[in-house]
Design goal:
Distance between the termini: 5 Å
Shape: globular
Largest sheet: 10 strands, mixed
Number of strands: 22
Helix content: 10-25%
Strand content: 25-35%
CATH architecture of the largest domain: 3-Layer(aba) Sandwich
Mean pLDDT: 82
Number of helices: 12
Radius of gyration: 22 Å
Number of domains: 2
Length: about 400
């Protein structure tokens, strides 16, 4: 972005000790000194396999279990595909050729010329099992997710078979922030890796930080399908949700019954869930969550979710105050402290924009650009934090 100066940049993997106050004194004042131990050092020192865009190494994808759901000819083709480690999902719609979608590629690729039949969809449905109220199902013992599209009569006419992977290496992008015990909200477009990050955060907080972590797993996407959660979440406990509309009630139940220090919840999307988040945060519990939206501005403008960042209200100023501020008499202001102390925009899997929520919201409401931290990987896949003096809300 033109006109933006970069005073310095720091590579986390090159430091034995990271003084957070040096990273961005405007964003994160009076920070303590935290050692780069545990997951951060391990993920950067082990031999890793990276994708073309710098994604972290794949630890476990259990691809064979995923391919069992597909027709035999598709299974054979994908097993012999050199890009199978980048496979994101397979789409099978009745009367159309099946399509594979890969990480880093904008479009899909047809796997054959013949169309998907009803028999193939029924066979896949039998292997997967019963779909929930959200039309999602999983393969037991894995992180794979199968989503159904139904006709008006209720029969399944399409399947989106998404590959679930336990990925290590993402935690080094925010390892220093976890030490504060502050709530963190992730926003980003679908497929950017928000759920994968939640899964690794659950493992690190429970195993390395020795926190009591409870995951609210509405679609079994974080902990995998089945009654026994996937090992990727470490020692974190998992509460399943019978219906998506009950997610907010299970969140409150987790706090009242199981004394968690950390609650992890995916896809906060309703007013009831936003209110439940505020109630949990006011009880002193650390929240890690994701919300629908790509950027902080999307949350500010969303009346359903704006409470996550403190809520927005219209305030009428007096004549003298308006002149002093050089603004109109009716302005927008934040109503309350944000539920989430940090907000991270996941632009790409390895390109994040970190906000201190309260400061960024106030600056944006005043029509000014807030201070942010850009967290990304360089050419050697080392995490680099850059401090930016300006932020346009679109691209940096």
């Amino acid at each position: 972005m033109s006109g933006v100066s970069l005073p310095w940049r720091v590579s986390l993997s090159s430091l034995s000790c990271f003084n957070s106050s040096d990273a961005c004194p405007f964003l994160f004042p009076a920070r303590r000194r935290f050692p780069l131990s545990g997951s951060l050092v391990t993920s950067l020192s082990l031999p890793c396999s990276f994708s073309g865009n710098g994604a972290a190494m794949v630890v476990d994808d259990n691809l064979h279990a995923f391919l069992e759901v597909l027709p035999q000819d598709l299974r054979h083709r994908l097993l012999n595909d050199f890009r199978r480690n980048l496979l994101v999902e397979v789409v099978m719609d009745l009367g159309r050729p099946p399509e594979a979608r890969y990480l880093g590629e904008p479009g899909g690729q047809y796997l054959r010329t013949t169309e998907v039949s009803m028999e193939e969809l029924e066979h896949a449905q039998k292997l997967v099992g019963e779909f929930g109220a959200d039309n999602r199902a999983g393969i037991e013992g894995t992180l794979h997710r199968i989503s159904a599209i139904r006709s008006r009569k209720g029969s399944i006419v399409g399947l989106t078979c998404r590959v679930g992977r336990a990925v290590s290496g993402h935690i080094d992008m925010l390892y220093d922030l976890l030490h504060y015990g502050k709530s963190i909200l992730f926003v980003g477009r679908p497929g950017v890796g928000k759920t994968t990050v939640l899964r690794e955060i659950a493992r690190v907080l429970s195993d390395e930080f020795q926190k009591r972590v409870v995951i609210i797993d509405t679609s079994n996407e974080i902990g995998g399908d089945g009654d026994i959660p996937h090992s990727a979440i470490g020692g974190a406990r998992r509460m399943q949700v019978p219906k998506p509309c009950l997610q907010h009630k299970v969140m409150i139940e987790a706090v009242e019954n199981h004394m968690p220090q950390v609650i992890i919840v995916d896809e906060i999307g309703t007013e009831a869930e936003a209110l439940a988040c505020r109630s949990i945060a006011e009880r002193g519990v650390m929240l890690i969550g994701t919300a629908h939206g790509e950027q902080l501005q999307n949350i500010i403008k969303n009346p359903t979710l704006s409470d996550l960042i403190g809520g927005i209200e219209t305030v009428t100023l007096g004549d003298e105050e308006a002149r002093a501020r050089r603004c109109q008499k009716s302005i927008l202001e934040r109503k309350a402290p944000p539920t989430f102390y940090f907000l991270i925009e996941m632009r790409e899997r390895d390109y994040w924009i970190a906000h201190q929520t309260e400061k960024s919201v106030d600056m944006l409401l005043r029509g000014r650009n807030p201070m942010v931290e850009v967290r990304k990987r360089d050419e050697q896949f080392k995490v680099v934090i850059e401090r930016w003096k300006a932020y346009d809300g679109q691209g940096i």
